Amino acid sequence: MTEAREAILLVGGKGTRLRPLTVHTPKPMVPAAGVPFLTHQLARARAAGVEHVVLATSYLAEVFEPYFGDGSSLGLSLEYVTEREPLGTGGAIRNVASRLASGPDEPVLVFNGDILTGLDIRALAASHATSGADVSLHLTRVEDPRAFGLVPTDGSGRVTAFLEKPQTPQEIVTDQINAGAYIFRRSVIDTIPAGRPVSVERETFPGLLADGAHLQGMVDSTYWLDLGTPQAFVRGSADLVLGRAPSPAVPGRCGDRLVLPSASVAADAKLTAGTVVGERARIGEGARISGSTVLQDAVVEPGAVITDSLVGAGARIGSRTVLTGAVIGDGAQVGADNELRDGIRVWCGAVLPDASVRFSSDQ
């Protein structure tokens, strides 16, 4: 079988780097291009022939099933397994193994819940079948690999080493990194120790390599973005709207803006660069919003200027306030005539009075 019919989706992380977006919402459920980010991943898996997905949940696990149910609305069969204690990536994979129906030699797709990618999943599965690998990894190339795990390969694509987060020039032997999507031979999953934390990147893969297993890398350098920071999340959402990142789940045509049906936008407001306006949000006269996400029930008052920012659910941005690279938590109130720049984060429910802030986080 070349096609992976089953998948494990790792969605247990706390999304600490994404706070305050993830205070009330697990990272995969934060809206990107108008729907929870997880919707895009599930839709892409379905389009690649996956039929059954097991979600490995932990943080705020109770919100997934009420939203997605049994998966039938997406043409999938979904199951949910909740970790009582965080088990790491490898431990999470092992923890859900009993829910898989695949035979020992059949392929199982495993992917991380915080990566936006244009990966050709069918091509990864075909490469896995052709090479006869025990595990196949999606690799992508990055300009600065120091924040990632390097995965050098030989001329045939076979993985030769795993190098965690190199720092010196001598350690940077390749620009190929682990991109967070894998195809496992089903039987390999059962070799991961059960009931304890395991890192697939630091323990499972190097251990398999040391034992002589065949790990194959497929470089696919189409769109790839780690959505671990608020700035990356905002950019990923905009790229989905603009059509730079492919997804069958974007609720509308790709273009400069995506306004959900129950939102209201003043006729002279200007929305550009992949801006999203969520359900029941209101955008006032003369507002200019570029490359930003305004979540459900938020209000942007007249004349506000918002660039590369995220406005949380139910938040309010006052008249003429300027946001650049800012994250405003759910329910926060930012008064009129404020200026917030450069990665500043306003916590959920915080209140900033009119004209009280004109600074950036690096001052």
Automatic annotation (TrEMBL):
InterPro entries: GMPPB_C, Mannose-1P_guanyltransferase, NTP_transferase_dom, Nucleotide-diphossugar_trans. It comes from the Bacteria. SUPFAM superfamilies: Nucleotide-diphospho-sugar transferases (SSF53448). Residues 7-239 form the Nucleotidyl transferase domain. Residues 255-357 form the Mannose-1-phosphate guanyltransferase C-terminal domain. Belongs to the transferase hexapeptide repeat family. This is NDP-sugar synthase. The lineage of its organism: Bacteria, Bacillati, Actinomycetota, Actinomycetes, Kitasatosporales.
